[in-house]
Design goal:
alpha+beta, seven-stranded antiparallel sheet, globular, single chain
């Protein structure tokens, strides 16, 4: 009986600390979100599904969840997508293939604080925005990064340099990061360039990350772009998040 009571208590605790997520598609075409939990964390909704124009999908994750969500576009009936592909599967069971815009979350950290950001470190394919859901959070400071919207709202494909672009039928459909395109230690912030002090524009042959940063100042443009890209929020009692494609 004692084991049964303990199990019920754990179930109630995990349920009461569920975060609501809302995925909304504002693009003028279907989007196939990909989802992946961090190591040891669940992957919601079997990792992927189709989200039609103006459609919203709601799901919940447990206390302490962490993971990433990204848009895939132009997927066919076999599950192959022209950007953000998951190895020809609609339901991703691993990481998607860059380039793709990423929404990243680490929930319920020290002091019950959430961390979230939009990252272009792996490149870009669609505009994306993260909104804390009103009524589910509390601000603890006047900081710009406290419970505000994070995202990249511009179509970076329009300004993507040709050497970074992914093309399809004469159109740019995604934009690689410099790391993905050139695979050098400088752009990938590794080896001798693997610290915030050495991974910087003065060591890059060309400042490609600045193209992303100028267009989307609230999004990560390279690995150590933390100070102007990481947002935090405290729950009331637990924060919910809306992720909008083509906001």
């Amino acid at each position: 009986m004692k084991l049964q009571v303990t199990s019920i208590f754990i179930l109630m605790l995990s349920t009461s600390y569920a975060h609501e997520f809302r995925l909304r598609n504002n693009c003028p075409f279907p989007v196939w979100p990909g989802l992946l939990g961090n190591p040891g964390k669940e992957t919601p909704l079997n990792g992927g599904f189709q989200l039609n124009l103006w459609e919203t999908k709601v799901f919940h994750v447990g206390y302490g969840w962490g993971g990433r969500i990204w848009p895939r576009r132009d997927c066919d009936g076999n599950g192959h997508c022209l950007s953000g592909d998951c190895g020809n599967k609609i339901q991703c069971d691993g990481t998607g293939n860059p380039p793709a815009s990423l929404a990243e979350f680490t929930l319920d950290g020290w002091g019950n604080q959430d961390y979230y950001d939009v990252s272009l470190v792996d490149g870009y394919n669609l505009p994306i925005k993260i909104n804390p859901i009103p009524g589910t959070f509390r601000k603890v400071s006047d900081s710009y990064f406290d419970c505000n919207s994070a995202g990249c709202y511009r179509d970076l494909n329009e300004i993507c340099p040709n050497e970074l672009a992914i093309w399809h039928n004469g159109w740019k459909i995604a934009c690689k990061s410099a790391c993905l395109a050139f695979n050098t230690d400088q752009y990938c912030c590794r080896g001798a360039y693997g610290t915030p002090q050495t991974c910087k524009s003065s060591n890059w042959p060309y400042n490609y990350p600045a193209i992303f940063k100028q267009a989307c100042p609230d999004a990560y443009s390279y690995a150590y772009d933390d100070t102007t890209s990481t947002f935090t929020c405290h729950g009331n009692p637990e924060t919910g998040y809306e992720i909008v494609f083509c906001p």
